[in-house]
Amino acid sequence: MGCVACEHCTGECCHYVALAIDKPTTQRDFDDIRWYLMHEGVIIFVEEGAWYLQFRAVCRNLRTDFKCGVYETRPQICREYKATDCDYTGGDYDYDHLFTEPEQIAAHAKKHFADRRRKSRATSKSANGSKKRARPATGKAAAR
Ligand code: SF4
Ligand code: SF4
Q1: 11, 87, 95, 127: least buried by Cβ within 10 Å?
Q2: Is residue 127 included in any domain, yes or no?
Q3: Residue from 3, 59, 60, 80 whose mutation best tests the ligand 2 pocket (most atoms within 8 A of CB)
Q4: Residue 113 falls inside a structural domain
């Protein structure tokens, strides 16, 4: 905070905490995320392949005039956050994925595992295919 845009903003960036989480790989991981999303104010987003959990929580240092109450000693993360592309000035983020409801992650998990099964079937088919082609070639070579 502390720029022209911040003068007009109500401290959007001071109203939440976002934490990196492991990329889900198992049914249990996706189910845990579904549970996170059952809570008010929680969203999950994916940015450049990295997964984050974000929850609404107003910083205790945000003053009623929406200025930072500890500006001089504010944490590094607040110093690095730039108003040139922030929650107020940046508009919609270009998320890979944004999940706000438990049903969305359940649907995503369903598709994820269906795609994985399809890929695994395709891989094993192609592996079997090369084995099949290999046999007659070996046979011919042996007959010569
Ligand atoms: S969201 Fe952007 S404009 Fe608003 S206080 Fe934070 S950095 Fe400033
Ligand atoms: S410390 Fe200040 S700048 Fe950082 S989140 Fe809190 S109010 Fe905002």
Answers
A1: 127
A2: no
A3: 59
A4: no
pLDDT at 140: 43
For residue 41, the number of C-alpha atoms closer than 13 Å in the C-beta half-sphere is: 8
Expressed in angstroms and rounded, the spacing between residue 68 Cα and the centre of ligand 1 is 11
- How many CB atoms are closer than 10 A to CB 67? 15
Q: How far is the CA of 85 from the centre of ligand 1 (A)?
A: 9
Domain count for the chain: 1
Q: Which residue's CA is minimally distant from atom 5 of ligand 2?
A: 14
Q: How confident is the model at residue 139 (pLDDT cuts 50, 70, 90)?
A: very low
Ligand 1 center from residue 60 Cα (angstroms):
16
User: Would you say residue 26 lies in a domain?
Assistant: yes
Whether 138 is in a domain gets the answer no
Q: Which domain holds residue 95?
A: 4-102
